Amino acid sequence: MYKDKSEVVFSDDASALIQKIIRRYPDGRQKSALLPLLHIAQAEFGGWLSAPVMDKVAEILNIQSIEVYEVASFYSMFNLKPVGRCVIEVCRTGPCWLLGAEDIVKYLEKKLNIKEGQTTARRYHFSLVERQDQSLNMSRQLLLEHINTPGIRGIKAFREKVVTVRLKKHLKQ
């Protein structure tokens, strides 16, 4: 892990893309590029945003680090700690609970042998994450897996559509 922003170096391709995105905005409005740059940084540095990486983004945009931290911590799409290559996000709002989210969490914890907020030690490194945001609730009902799985309603459908099709092949390896 990086100790400070001076150790954070984007690849040539990422740097070129960052400059292209920044040029879309008029002088003095480069902060508008923050969300796309955070996506690039997260993809570039292992799927999560460390403080030195966020400091580097702030330096590139010529803004305060706290401005980057505020945005990154607000949006659930940004991971502020290491996660697995496959992140399974489970909605934990009231409507999701009524549709069986608790059963899905218990099933996943047992199947993956981890608790919510943890990552497996297996080859594919699954992370199980709770989400409370409304967009997750409305767009995927119960579960959003980074390998998109629409139409999940209840534990039976979850087992049939996700575990048997996707997780099963990874867990055998």
In brief, what are we looking at here?
By secondary structure, the chain is mainly α.
Count of runs of 4 or more consecutive helical residues: 8
Number of strands: 3
Shape: elongated
Largest sheet: 3 strands, mixed
| Structural class assignment | mainly alpha
**Beta-strand percent range:** 5-15%
The radius of gyration is: 18 Å
Mean pLDDT across the residues is 77
Order of helices and strands: HHHHEHHEHEH
- Poorly predicted regions are 136-154
- Describe the strand arrangement of the main beta sheet, using strand numbers: 2-1-3
The helix content, as a percent range, equals 40-55%
Distance between the ends:
28 Å
In terms of topology, how is this protein built?
Blueprint: H1 12-22, H2 34-44, H3 51-61, H4 65-74, E1 86-91, H5 94-98, H6 101-112, E2 126-131, H7 134-140, E3 143-145, H8 155-172
Parallel strand pairs: 1-2
Antiparallel strand pairs: 1-3
Helix pairs in contact: 2-3, 3-4
